[in-house]
Design a protein that fits this description.
The chain has 155 residues and is α+β, with helices and mostly antiparallel strands. The chain contains six helices and five strands; from the N terminus they run ααααββββαβα. The strands form two sheets. It has a three-stranded antiparallel beta sheet with strand order 1-2-3. Strands 4-5 form a two-stranded parallel sheet. The radius of gyration is 15 Å and the shape is globular. The protein starts with 8 loop residues before the first helix and ends in a 9-residue tail after the last helix.
Length: 155
């Protein structure tokens, strides 16, 4: 349902919301401009249903201070056996050449290898798209230390 479960400092800086204020709110209704036609009413449910990565999704986002900014998202969905969605969002703003890579897994699902699968899928997708990444959360940094075969993707 596109509810923000967690945020990291990079997202806090980009969008101007402290994590505690945005957690629990609907991502699409809070950060995406109502005037942006890109994400229709059924976009999120279709994204989950298809279960395929989306790259180059350009939308107008709203910062907490009301400033409208252009964002480009790459989303790699990971759906578990019961249909719960975990996603990796990579945000590329005009002033950022390489997107930050962030892995988010709800607390109740941690310790089950989900973050590793999510990060691996996102890195493989970045490689296939000839993209580079900026590790923006501690788990991605740890993953890269354990898997140096992906270090060539780091900007």
């Amino acid at each position: 349902n596109a509810t923000v479960l967690e945020m990291n400092p990079v997202a806090e800086n980009i969008f101007g919301y402290p994590a505690i204020e945005l957690t629990g709110r609907n991502l699409l209704r809070t950060l995406i401009s109502a005037d942006d036609p890109t994400l229709g009413e059924n976009w999120w449910s279709e994204f989950i249903r298809k279960g395929e990565p989306v790259t180059g999704l350009r939308v107008q986002c709203l910062r907490r201070d009301g400033l409208e900014i252009s964002c480009e998202f790459s989303l790699t969905p990971l759906v578990n056996d019961v249909g719960d969605l975990l996603s990796l969002a990579s945000t590329d703003l005009p002033e950022h050449r390489d997107p930050p890579l962030i892995a988010v897994v709800p607390a109740e699902l941690r310790g089950k290898g989900i973050a590793e699968k999510l990060v691996r899928a996102a890195l493989e997708h970045a490689r296939a798209e000839r993209r580079r990444i900026v590790p923006a959360c501690s788990y991605v940094g740890i993953f890269l230390q354990r898997h140096p075969e992906f270090n060539d993707l780091v900007a």
